[in-house]
Amino acid sequence: MSIMKSVKKIPGGLMIVPLLLGCIFNTFFPEFFTYFNGTFTTHLWKTGAMPILAVFLFCNGTTINFKEAGVTVYKGCVLTAVKVIVGMLCGLAVAAFFGEAGVMGVAPIAIIAALANSNGGIYAALAGEYGKATDVGAVSILAINDGPFFTMLALGAVGYDVPI
């Protein structure tokens, strides 16, 4: 059996398996990249998240046909809007009914963050394996909710006091 078939048996394996291999490698050989200090290898793989993210988004963008760009933008906007709106409504409902303490110790900020945020890498891997090219291209729009932006926007809009 080939390595690719084994990796594809795991849901999201194209993303998870290399990530776990990197974690294991860096755990047992943490000084390995010191041999490459100041080289392109260090800046790309050890300290440079931005270059690899740029390559990731560029490669995703090249998979779609220009004629299908409208469908990609539509899918990305709809998925982002629905995910953010549902997350905000659930979190704000918990805040309204239970206050800042939340439900069973889970604060509204955690609920909004969990429901409104996503992992673009896992989405791209699963969409690439099971979806169409327009689904994979939508990751560029979905990437806007990978951070705390919408969570802070929702909580700030309703006057929630977030300690810094």
Automatic annotation (TrEMBL):
Q: Which UniProt keywords apply?
A: Cell membrane, Membrane, Sugar transport, Symport, Transmembrane, Transmembrane helix, Transport
Pfam families listed in its UniProt record = KdgT
Record-linked PROSITE patterns: PROKAR_LIPOPROTEIN (PS51257)
Q: Which GO terms describe its cellular component?
A: membrane
What InterPro entries does the entry give? 2keto-3dGluconate_permease (IPR004684)
**Care to name a GO molecular-function term for this sequence?**
2-keto-3-deoxygluconate:proton symporter activity
Q: Which residues cross the membrane?
A: 12-29, 49-66, 78-99, 105-126, 138-160
Recorded family membership: Belongs to the KdgT transporter family.
What's the name of the protein?
2-keto-3-deoxygluconate permease
Organism for this UniProt entry: Anaerovibrio lipolyticus
